[in-house]
Amino acid sequence: xxxxxxxxxxxxxxxxxxxxxxxxxxxxxxxxxxxxxxxxxxxxxxxxxxxxxxxxxxxxxxxxxxxxxxxxxxxxxxxxxxxxxxxxxxxxxxxxxxxxxxxxxxxxxxxxxxxxxxxxxxxxxxxxxxxxxxxxxxxxxxxxxxxxxxxxxxxxxxxxxxxxxxxxxxxxxxxxxxxxxxxxxxxxxxxxxxxxxxxxxxxxxxxxxxxxxxxxxxxxxxxxxxxxxxxxxxxxxxxxxxxxxxxxxxxxxxxxxxxxxxxxxxxxxxxxxxxxxxxxxxxxxxxxxxxxxxxxxxxxxxxxxxxxxxxxxxxxxxxxxxxxxxxxxxxxxxxxxxxxxxxxxxxxxx
Length: 350
Ligand SMILES: [Zn+2]
Prior knowledge:
By secondary structure, this protein is α+β, with helices and mostly antiparallel strands. It has three domains: 6-138, DnaJ domain (Helix Hairpins), CATH 1.10.287; 150-243, Urease metallochaperone UreE, N-terminal domain (HSP40/DNAj peptide-binding domain); 248-337, HSP40/DNAj peptide-binding domain. The protein contains nine helices and 13 strands. It has helices at residues 6-10, 18-31, 42-59, 62-76, 98-103, 121-133, 135-138, 158-163, 326-337; strands at residues 150-157, 165-176, 185-186, 189-190, 199-210, 219-222, 236-243, 248-251, 254-261, 270-276, 279-285, 294-297, 312-318. Strands 8-9-13-12 form a four-stranded mixed β-sheet. The chain has a three-stranded mixed β-sheet with strand order 1-7-6. The protein has a two-stranded antiparallel sheet with strand order 2-5. α2 (18-31) packs antiparallel against α3. It is rod-shaped and about 110 Å long. The structure holds zinc ion.
């Protein structure tokens, strides 16, 4: 087993302050982040990245650092730690070549989530009992990264998109396992609480304010509702899928809805109140309008991708009062007797 010179890895002096360590770690972690290097160099870069994370893990935690420094003193006075490595023969901390250092992590790349599972044997031997012993305190320091963005889809009725308002939906998010702090493992092995995955599902209810420009396939970015991370949660990218409801349906960009009036309403110009975003609008059904005809309310539909608003199409339908008095029935029979039969739609004309 080889001694790990964490100070060299972070390029700081043995007397570095917490701030200096934090700054050095942030700079290196950014520089060696696997996402910033070509895939061909991935293995080397990941090793380096892990070495940096491990060094930070120890030096940013006062208790671990103390323990590490104590061992370092021993080692410097000739008590080799394990087999000794390159530069172990009394050369001191400074002489461990960073490349060599990075290679030490070589065989241990695995581990779910790339967390503690990738740390060196040296680290495991030195700090393993700290992990086993106490819960909170033994938790490894988080890397300063935001959680990943998450994606989800919800169905929104056309009426909701048209009229606005609020809408609750249930969301399942991945949060770090509380038992192992998201590392997926304890010193004794894989974390039993999360089966080594480092994360668990949590369901929560989210209240969405339906945006003014809600439309089908729209992607909303909801801040902080993505996967949890040490430096805050990522975002949720929520795709809206519009579906027709009892009243409203999509017709291309436009929204179509039935508007039901009585037959006698069509004898004169008739005005009906129509629900629109933020209140009601009045639609005029002109005399002479026939059932099935469509009235177009310009700009009262949904927002198009170019920002303009589509139209609301009202299809005029006939209806009768829910219950009819004997007098009303008598009048309707008189009307029937004086009229030719009216048939349409699926009804045969003969
Ligand atoms: Zn766990």
